[in-house]
Design a protein that fits this description.
Pfam families: DUF4845. With 128 residues, the protein is of the alpha+beta class. It has a domain at 33-119. It has helices at residues 10-50, 57-70; strands at residues 83-88, 91-105, 108-119. Strands 1-2-3 form a three-stranded antiparallel β-sheet, with helices on one face. α1 crosses α2. The longest helix has 41 residues, at 10-50.
Length: 128
């Protein structure tokens, strides 16, 4: 009586496990950068809902930096020069554009570019 075995061999299982482990390690390195970006978006939406009427750009940057601290955004992630204010399609917009470098393995790094703009109520006062 001849029986045919089916299934995965030990070597095949190790290869599948190595590939899955590689992608799991990549996800462990990248997910914190995206959760930090979610905190940036939440802080920007809070600033947009409060409005910026009569505030200078430096005051808006200070308020945003304060709110980013509550969202566990690292101080070295966003610099004041990354926060700009400009005219958009639907009026005034608060914009943040920054790069995040995530070390992966050996001399391989991920460079992730984040950019977000939200419409805000009011006008920013000119610097004094």
């Amino acid at each position: 009586m001849k029986s045919k075995q089916t299934g995965i061999t030990l070597i095949g299982f190790i290869v599948v496990l190595a590939v899955a482990g590689f992608f799991a390690y990549m996800a462990m390195k990248l997910v914190p950068a995206y959760t930090e970006y979610a905190g940036v978006v939440k802080a920007m939406n809070q600033i947009a809902s409060e409005g910026v009427d009569g505030k200078t750009l430096d005051q808006v940057r200070r308020d945003l930096a304060f709110k980013l601290g509550f969202q566990y955004v690292d101080d070295s992630t966003i610099h004041p020069s990354d926060i700009t204010f400009g005219q958009g399609a639907s009026g005034n917009e608060l914009r943040i554009s920054y790069d995040k470098q995530v070390p992966f393995m050996y001399n391989i790094d991920f460079l992730i570019h984040f950019s977000k703009s939200v419409p805000v109520q009011g006008n920013v006062a000119p610097p004094q």
